[in-house]
Amino acid sequence: MAALSLMLGAWSTVPTAALAAPASDTAAALEYEATLSALSSLGITDQSTASRAGTQGDVPEVVASSAQIAESDGALRVDSGTGTVSITPSAPEGTLNRAGDLAVFSAEAGYDLVTAAIDGRPAAYAVMHDNTAPSRFAFDVAVDGQPAALQAVGDAIQILDPSGNVLNAIAPPWAVDANGEPVPTRYEVVGSSIIQVVDHVGFEYPVVADPRVACDAIFCTLEFTWAETFTASETALAAGTVLCGGATLLAPIPGVVFACSAYAVAFWVTAVQAKNQYDCVAMRINRVAPNLTPPFPVIYGDESPYCNPPRA
């Protein structure tokens, strides 16, 4: 699991009425459109819910209202059951523009930062357009308006409220270049900020990186990479080891009731199916009514850079 890096500074305050696409005849507009295009190539668009929803085996959609983009500052706000987690890009002064369920923070250094409340997968993104972009991208995290406490768990990060309770988590990072090649990336924690470090120089631009929130108001999702899916497909024992290793990230979150070893066989069977179709396996956990909807394995598509299956 990886980390996000910190750049100090503040975005200019933007009135709600100003959250619109920039004028089409400016350099900023070209970069803005390039950012939307780079995200769209990965299936990240305001219409992605319609394009992905509902097919059997997909990660089920969550209630749309559990994640929202704040009109005032573009922060991603995620209802996490007992508190609201907010994630706000931190960078030198720039402009904030809105594209449906995406908020794009544009700077003048060859990159944009994005918050997204779409497709049941609330996330932030860093989009690097050329090698003038920095390698460290910072996101400030708060719980109910107060700075969050953050702690690393492997490559992921747990989000704690001021009392020390784990409310949510940031899934392990990924980054990918324009050719779909994985780009080295990791997280760092600086106070209440997550820093994603992306070693993008030498790769094909644009490069996109993503810190994702693991839980919404109803479900928590554990996504596993192709390598983990392949290992889990070998035996039920291997599947249980992979699943229980990942489950440590979510175990302290209120409502997560998950005896991972009890689901090893179901996870193994689903991992075999996922591997055979060059997809990856994930586990969904209902944090609101775990007795009514027990945890269940699902398959998520190879379009996800985090899955990263081998190419045919």
Structural class by SSE content: alpha+beta
Order of helices and strands: HHEEEEEEEEEEEEEEEEEHHHEE
Instruction: Please indicate the count of domains.
Output: 2
How many DSSP E strands? Answer: 19
* Spatial gap, N to C terminus: 26 Å
Please summarize the sheet with the most strands. Answer: 7 strands, antiparallel
β-sheet strand percentage? 25-35%
Question: How many helical elements?
Answer: 5
Question: What is the average of the pLDDT values?
Answer: 81
What is the global morphology? globular
| Low-confidence runs of at least 5 consecutive residues | 1-20, 47-65
- How helix-rich are the residues, as a percent range? 10-25%
Radius of gyration: 19 Å
Task: Please outline what is shown here.
The chain is an alpha+beta fold. Helix content is 16%, strand content 31%.
Architecture overview:
The protein is of the alpha+beta class and 312 residues long. Helix content is 16%, strand content 31%. It contains 5 helices and 19 strands. The strands form 4 sheets. Strands 1, 2, 3, 8, 9, 14 and 15 form a 7-stranded antiparallel β-sheet that branches. The radius of gyration is 19 Å and the shape is globular. The two termini are 26 Å apart.
Descriptive keywords:
312 residues, alpha+beta, seven-stranded antiparallel β-sheet, six-stranded antiparallel β-sheet, globular
